[in-house]
Amino acid sequence: MTLYMRVSRDEYELPEIVTDTIQEMAEKSGTNINCIRSHISHRKAGRIKKDRFIRVEVEEEDEQDSDLPYMWEEL
User: Fold this and answer.
1) C-beta atoms surrounding 11 within 10 Å
2) Are the CB atoms for 35 and 22 separated by under 8 Å?
3) pLDDT tens-digit map of 13-69
4) Which of 9, 33, 25, 35 is nearest to 17 (CA)?
5) Which pLDDT tens digit goes with each residue over 12-24?
6) Residue 14 gets which letter from DSSP?
7) Is the whole-model pTM more than 0.85?
8) Cβ neighbours of residue 7 under 8 Å, at least 6 residues apart?
9) Is there a contact between 6 and 13 (Cβ–Cβ < 8 Å)?
10) What are the Cα distances from residue 20, in Å, to 15, 27, 47?
């Protein structure tokens, strides 16, 4: 799954807006879609210093395949 985020301009780059699509990001941030695409591509090249838009690939995990221990065990 792909997520689009606008992150803070400081060294921590904390997420300010997180969406599933570029269209959603454009609507929530008030930025043109083409500007967001440009920010994402120029960020990879290291030329962006303003609002930072990033694309993040997230692996989806099935609940059955989870490595988490069971919360309740019968004795």
Assistant:
1) 6
2) no
3) 899 999 999 999 999 999 999 999 988 887 665 555 666 888 999 887 766 555 555
4) 25
5) 889 999 999 999 9
6) -
7) no
8) 13, 14, 15, 16, 52, 53, 54
9) no
10) 14, 12, 25
